[in-house]
Structure formats: structure tokens, C-alpha cells
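If it is no trouble, can you show me the amino acids of a protein and the C-alpha cells describing how it folds?
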Amino acid sequence: MSAQAIPRYRQLKELIIGQISSGELQPSDRVPSENELVDATGVSRMTANRALRELNDEGYVERVAGVGTFVADFKAVSHVLEVRNIADEVELRGHVHSSSVLQQKRMSADSNIATALDIEAGADVFHIKLIHLESGIPIQIEDRFVLAEFAPHVLEQDFAVVTPSAYLSSISPLQEAEHIVRAEMPTEKISQHLEMGAQEPCLVVTRRTWAHGRPVSFANLYHPGSRFELSGHYVPPGTEAQVKRRLSGATTND
């Protein structure tokens, strides 16, 4: 689709999303008002209003009546399954992260991948599969599919240097995520890659992430049952502890 065929409100949305992705606009920064966007870009007030309204609905900005529009804080956590970069998690534990890439190719989406990414079967996706290690010990197999039109340069990336999560976050801020957790017995190959014991189960986290109002990535994350756990701390809304955390600038969930 040519740039001329893209509706003006969508062009304006992509412009603002691009400024957020590049860091030109940071969380809590004020976004230009409708009038300022009209003056700067020449769009109609109705177009500017629609762009800001949809950005607000999609979670990129927060509109405060009588005050203005501000970039949303995409780093706020929501629950125990916060989307984190595994390399950062490993380093926070004082260990060294490394990875080994097993697969990195373009392919046509089968029916399962198409359903997960809400696309037509046969559409182009990238398949990335790698082993994450913590101080030389394998802790996760990441088996990920990425919408090709969202991240067209995936094949050019060195995922032994930058994780897929970090790379995709650099393209566009995370808008939404879905997790499903299950325990299962691993295949022989997964067991070998993760150096698991005989009859050891693995914990599988299936993750979908959204950007630009649509799912753009789908991954199965395999962990050795003996070397992985989920943990978190929840403070119910309205409690004294939650109020204190809000006043201190902390999020309500860890």
C-alpha cells in the first residue's frame, strides 16, 4: 500500500508511535495537542482527534481531561508473568547470559501460527529458535514466530548478541501480552538441549504479544522443571500497602 493510500489518521498514529519507539518521546512526556498537531501536520482537527483517541485506546498514550495527552508507561508491570528480557533477568541475578541460535528463517505460517497471530495461513512469518544459558547452564528454549511485516529485518539480526525480546521491543513498545502456563513432558530433543534429567517435566510458557493493535509475536518458552519457578507479590487495590506504594511511585504488582 502506498503512503498516499494510507489514511491520514493512521499516518499520524504511526508518526507518534515512531517517536515513542525511538525514544524521542519518553514515558510521561506530553504529546502535542490536537491543535498543535493540526498546525504542525496540516491534518484536520477530526483527523488529529481520531489519531489521539485510537492511540489512547491502544495504550500508547493517556489522555487526561483538562491537562493533556501523555506517553503511557509501557514498563509498568501487571502480574507475576511480567514480560521481561531474559538477559536482564540473568544479569540481575549476578550471572552471565548467553544464547545459541538453532533456527532463524522465513517461512509460511501454518494454521496454528496463523490462528495465534490472527493472519491468513501461508502469510510470511519469521521462525526464531534459540537456547538461553545462565553462566553456561541452559535454562530456556525460546521457540518464537514473528509477523514478517512487523519486523522485516529479523534475518539480519544476531540473536546471539541481542535477544529477540529486546530487539522486538526496540521496534515498537509492548502494548499487550497474553500468557498460558502448562507443565508437560519434553520431547527428547528439548530434553537434550536443556540437559534435563530422565522423566523430568518442563514448564512451558506460551506468550503472545501485541503492537499497533494486533498480535505480532507468538512464542513457546520451555524451561527445565528443576531449574525454573514463577514468583510474584500482589498488593490488592485499596489496601494501605497499595496506597503507600502508589504514593511512592511504585507499581501495584511485582
Observations:
- Strands lie at 30-31, 61-64, 68-71, 97-108, 124-134, 137-147, 176-184, 202-211, 214-224.
